[in-house]
Write the structure tokens for this entry.
Amino acid sequence: MVKLAVYGATGRMGRTIINLIAKEKDLILVGAVERPDHPAIGEKISSLFQGEIPEEITLEGSLSTLQLEQVDVVVDFTTPQAALQCAQICQESKTALVSGTTGFDSKQQEKFENIVKSIPCVQASNFSLGTSILFWLTGEVTKRVDSQYETEIIEAHHHFKKDAPSGTAKRLAKIVADIRNKKSKEPSGEFQIKYGRAGQTGVRNQKEICIHSIRAGDIVGEHTVLFATEGERIELTHRASSREAFAKGALFTARWVKKKNPGFYDMFDVLGLK
Ligand code: NAD
């Protein structure tokens, strides 16, 4: 049995995860945490959700009010600031962490990695298992086509998403840039990641990898990596049609990380794609 606490419990992802935990026989919800000023703090979680949720659990306003020695894994889908607080508390209590929050700047990311290195932690900008395959395929295609295949990344999400471009799009661009920069012996400089285009842009710079972000309606999450050259193009696309794809992947990861030694892991570790 894996005992889980969900941090960001009433958010879109938190709710999806709690509903899924209630359906899984080997998982049990032992804690649910929200921001301290959330109006439902103190209410029974069973009154907020459907399914088999233990009666005694109330919505907490802080992770540190839980008995963390009774929690195997904390699952976090919140905001970068809250995720850093969560990482700190998990580190102090030596509790494993699955973190799906996106939108960290580079300083926050560095701080996060520093905090979690002494606990088992998996961080992923996208927990859907299909997206990990997209990351892997993007690397494989980049290795096999030359840089005449110009690469652009298009991502689409719902209108509530707070950060752009998505963490997944940034990682896809970095995979392409890192492989091309390693392969390239040209003196004309490194491949650069760019965000969108407007105005008199001139002809396309061969050394750019451009990310385009769409925000509209209820789109759950879509990513396309396009490799185009004269006469043909390759497109790799992943579409998540429901948040369950992320929630299932996060819970698959929680089962995996429970058995791991302290370390900072990603989905390639979880899925054996390294
Ligand atoms: P959301 O806004 O619906 O939910 C976030 C929740 O976090 C809210 O309920 C909010 O009250 C809560 N929260 C904020 N501060 C808190 C604190 N200090 N303590 C506890 N809870 C706190 O957002 P969402 O759509 O559920 O997404 C959450 C995060 O997960 C975002 O960064 C999003 O980009 C990311 N996300 C990641 C994946 C993935 O697979 N990695 C998938 C979907 C979303």
